[in-house]
Amino acid sequence: MNRPAAPADAPVLTAERLGVRFGRHIALRDVSLSIPRGRIVSIIGPSGCGKTTLLRCFSRMNELVSGARTSGTVHFAGMDLYGPDIDPVEVRRRIGMVFQKTTPFPKSVFDNIAFGPRASGFAGDLQGLVEEALTDAGLWSEVADDLDTPALELSAGQKQRLCIARTLALKPDVLLLDEPTSALDPEATARIESIIRALSPRYTIVIATYNRWQAARLSDMTAFLDRGELLEYGLTETLFTNPREARTESYLTGRTQ
Amino acid sequence: MMPRSVSGAGTASRAAGERLVAHVLLACTAVAVVALAAVLAVLVREAGLFFADVSPWRFLSEITWAPAAAEPRFGVLPLLVGTVQIAAGAAVFALPAGLMTAVYLDQYAGGRTARLLSGVTALMAGVPTVVYGLFALHFVTPALRVLWPGIEAFNALSACMVVGLMILPTVVVLSREALESVPAPLLDAGLALGAPKGRVVTRVLLPAASGGVLAAVLIAMARAVGETMIVTLAAGNESRLTWSPFEGLQTLTAFLTELGMGDAATGTREFQAFFAVGAVLFVGTYGIHMAGRMLVSRSVGRTGS
Amino acid sequence: MTRPPSRRDPVGTACRVAAIALLVVFLVFTAYLGYTASQVVNIDFLREASSGVAVSAGIGPALAGTIWLLLLTAVLALPIGIGTAIYLEEYAPRTRVTAVIESVAANLAGIPSVIYGIVGLALFVRALGMGPSILAGGCTLAVLALPVVIVSSRTAIRGVPEGLRLAAYGLGATRWQVVRNQILPAAGPGILAGCCAAFTRTAGAAAPLLVLGTATFMSFAPQTPAHPLTSLPTQIFAWATRSQEEFAALAAGAALLLLLLLLAMNLVGALVVRRLNGASR
Q1: What structural domains and CATH numbers belong to chain A?
Q2: Which helix (H) or strand (E) holds A203?
Q3: Which chains are adjacent to chain A, needing at least 3 Cβ pairs under 8 Å?
Q4: Residue B137: its pLDDT value, please?
Q5: Is residue C32 part of a domain?
Q6: HEC string of chain C?
Q7: From the list A103, A106, A120, which residue is nearest C172 (CB)?
Q8: A170: which chain B residues are within 8 Å (Cβ-Cβ)?
Q9: Does C173 sit within 8 Å of A103, measured CB to CB?
Q10: pLDDT for C84-134, tens place per residue?
């Protein structure tokens, strides 16, 4: 499963000494890592370790929370994402994020997918774009007949794929998935995982997951976060079979949660 | 900027539109803040001018209120006593009845009865107070005079009863919300122990909801203190220091309506007296209301966690 | 479905009696109003102007005044109030200043309306030279309605699930796109319900208008906001203070009309809320 990921792969995202605090609470401390282009990277760790916060750093979502402060830098394709003339809205169009809680808009399937492109003033073939996004997310065959179906009437698994499709319609460079399967049954989870694999060469994908086996199944590289600090980051195979840190090992073997 | 983008043309114009909207919304906020601040400013300024002239001690200790007299007297006590009397009287009529109705709605009423009662309560809440004032003066007072022929045409009793009617919906709706926030398992536990329902209501339900019920009482009291039209119509508008419910009286609010009927010129002490009374009323109702709201948010926070 | 409280449950019996008493009082109230009003209500009553002569009195001008006042409130208080709520919830950073504004607005919604009247008299009628006009009344009622609109709109906006907001931002929507496409449709019913409450408070307000100084005898309907102030509630008050029976009947007729107006307004509001709720599902 694990394609050999040469560390020499050109990094798409590079975080350096990244720190985030919400008021007094320090959520992320001194994290440095780079995400290679076209790979799947998992971020694992016990709940509250800062997985979600790290993902949100990449699409500048944390600043929507009042009292959040970010320090350090994130470079995206050579640019400082937190630079003074960077528009966070543009960042979020290039680096798409799917959230842990599936939240379809209370609109039709079509309008859900078209929301992002419309927001960015897309002027081309919207129908085609929607079909493409739904196809990539493995949902097209199930909803093609009636794109006017209210999105809230879909099943839980379909809703999550809709949320992925919604993000794909922006044609982002990077796809951030926050716990994409935490609310799903095993069957729906398997579906999502195979979709993620299929997207993998075309998109750089970063997944935050509490499920270490999902990380092992899916990703080329894995990062282990604990209490806001990056303890270990490397090829998934290496990390799982031969972890450097004792904390990583005890987490992977399930001795701590 | 970014090297590649799915966005079409017009990013710059959209950013300009975005800024425009933000400015318009900020302007709305500024206007609202200025308008509300102006209310406070006018009140503080005129009341300040009044108290620079009439000492707060005289204001609170004298027992005659006659601001328009040739030799004006500025003792606010009769108005305060009148206000307290109306609010207390209204509480006597509204609080027990309102609370019991809320308990009935929450614990005893079936679906249809509950809907009917809540509908009636909502209708009553929407009746303008001047209409209640009409009812007080032209129905309740004549009815009272049949019972007690000695009662004055303008009397506090009629005003108390109808102000009670006016705040009844507030008491019912807010106490019912408080009762509904009590978790059902708590009551079931009581019933399962074999306690009769009435006992569970008084020993478990009401104590558990006491914070919210107290908040309901405070907010209803703020309304009673601030009630103007019923009192003006039913209790007359003559300030005197009396505790008798069969006589007329004047409240803080009722006095304020005289500003529209008289011709107190801006800058006179008589004019400023209205704002001094307004400030007293403001501080009183603002305080009661704030205490009520704090209790609501506290009791909601507690049951929510 | 409902068990009648047993004889051994005195608490239940007492509560039931209180509820019945409430219903009875309400029935007496409506019966009084309906019976008294029935003595005067006819078509001429609506058309003719109010006058000192009871028989030929009507409430056309007062009704027109109230409609003017509602329009002014709608134009002044709704956009500013809703705009303020949006700004405070979606644009402004959470600071002590915004917390103070919120708390003050919420408590101002609870102070007696007559206080707005004395301030309106000092400010609009005298300082700004509007005189006791419909315009001054509209401005005063707009200030009265403003806290209600702000507080209820903020509550409605705050009730929108955080996930919708995040998802929209995550898809690269700008702030205003998030507000227009997600927040306002989701919060719409709540905002509208708050506006209805504000309108009910405005349309029924007698005390503040009384303080501004109202014309209670008006022979023709107001054509512009510069016209002297008149309204249904103040007309009811003026008639109610007369001791003759005929005037009490006139007051009851006007009161019934005002109640029907409020009821119609709230029914329309409730229908629109229901439609909005249905559409967003």
Answers
A1: 11-253 (3.40.50.300)
A2: none
A3: B, C
A4: 94
A5: no
A6: CCCCCCCCCHHHHHHHHHHHHHHHHHHHHHHHHHHHHHCCCCHHHHHCCCCCCHHHCCCHHHHHHHHHHHHHHHHHHHHHHHHHHHHHHHHCCCCHHHHHHHHHHHHHCCCCHHHHHHHHHHHHHHHCCCCCEHHHHHHHHHHHHHHHHHHHHHHHHHCCCHHHHHHHHHCCCCHHHHHHHHHHHHHHHHHHHHHHHHHHHHHHCCHHHHHHCCCCCCCCCCCCCCCECCCHHHHHHHHHCCCCHHHHHHHHHHHHHHHHHHHHHHHHHHHHHHHHHHHCC
A7: A120
A8: 6
A9: no
A10: 999 999 998 888 899 999 899 999 988 999 999 999 999 999 989 888 899
CB B7 within 8 A of CB A122: yes
Instruction: Read off the pTM.
Output: 0.88
Binding-face residues of B in 117-156 toward C, CB within 8 A: 117, 120-121, 123-124, 126-131, 133-135, 137-139
Q: What is the pLDDT of residues A228-244, one digit of tens each?
A: 999 999 999 999 988 88
Confidence at residue C57, expressed as pLDDT on a 0 to 100 scale: 56
- CATH number for the domain that contains residue C116: 1.10.3720.10
pLDDT digits (tens, 9 = 90+) for A68-102: 899 999 999 888 999 888 888 889 999 999 998 88
In this complex, which of B25, B97, B257 lies closest to C21 when CB atoms are compared?
B97
A/B interface, count of CB pairs below 8 Å: 37
Task: Give the residue numbers spanning the domain of C191.
Answer: 58-279
Confidence of residue A30 (pLDDT cuts 50, 70, 90): very high
Which residues of chain B carry a pLDDT beneath 50? 1-9, 301-305
Q: What is the number of domains present in chain C?
A: 1
Chains that touch B (3 or more CB pairs under 8 A): A, C
Distance CA C144, CA C79 (A): 14
pLDDT per residue as tens digits for the range A138-160: 999 999 888 999 999 999 999 99
